[in-house]
Amino acid sequence: MASPDALIDEETLEPFLVLVLLCGVALLFSVPWAQRVKEFSLFSFLSRLPIYFSAHAFLMGVLGLNLGATSAARGEPRPAAALLLAKRVLLGQFLTLPYLLFARSLYPGKEAALLLILVYTTAFSLACALGGRLLEGPTRVSSSRAFPLKYLAFLFYCLAPLPALLALSPLGLPAVLLGTQAKEGVLLSFAVPTAAAALFFLLLRRKRGGESSA
After folding, report:
1. Within a domain: 118
2. Both ends of the chain: CA-CA distance in Å?
3. Contact 166, 186 (CB under 8 A)
4. Is residue 5 one of the residues assigned to a domain?
5. Residue at 8 is within a domain
6. Which of 144, 147, 184, 153 is nearest to 167 (CA)?
7. Prior bond to 163 cis, omega within 30?
8. Residues 7-64: pLDDT tens digits?
9. Looking at the domain assignment, is residue 126 inside a domain?
10. 146: left (phi > 0), else alpha (psi -120 to 50), else beta?
11. pTM higher than 0.90, yes or no?
12. For residue 115, what are the domain limits?
């Protein structure tokens, strides 16, 4: 039987595998020979997005939602689950680090922007993980209702700001940070997931009825 403190086990392995696989596919479409693929986009604004970093942000959010749901299904004690989810999100970033190092060569001189993207996607993924864990806890929404609710909210947050407010979307922020356009909304784009992650973390660290720290 897997240790309750294990970062990866049979139940959490699949989300990490999906993250690594799909990030690899996104990286393939980011190399110079694949640039023409963007010309066939149905939406012209998508050609402005750096494919790998936008896909990485989206997939890190999905990873967070899946980790939060798994934590709730396993009944991991809330105080311990908060820290454990944070560690798993960091593990997800570590597993995709080789992709980041390769993608860095596509954006020379943009090391500071890449670091900001890494910080942002970590906060975004953590907010998704902790929010998902809270939403699907035994005192919250039933699992059948929580699943569509959380994914509708997730997709709305990712897609609603496009194409007008790129910086407010996890899909558009990398384009703003890596591009030369004005950086309006960047501060708010960092503040929202960071504040949400901090709030959810504090809520999970509190003991609530039916969930002991044992």
Report:
1. yes
2. 17
3. no
4. no
5. no
6. 184
7. yes
8. 788 878 999 999 999 999 988 877 765 454 444 444 444 445 688 999 999 999 999 9
9. yes
10. alpha
11. no
12. 13-205
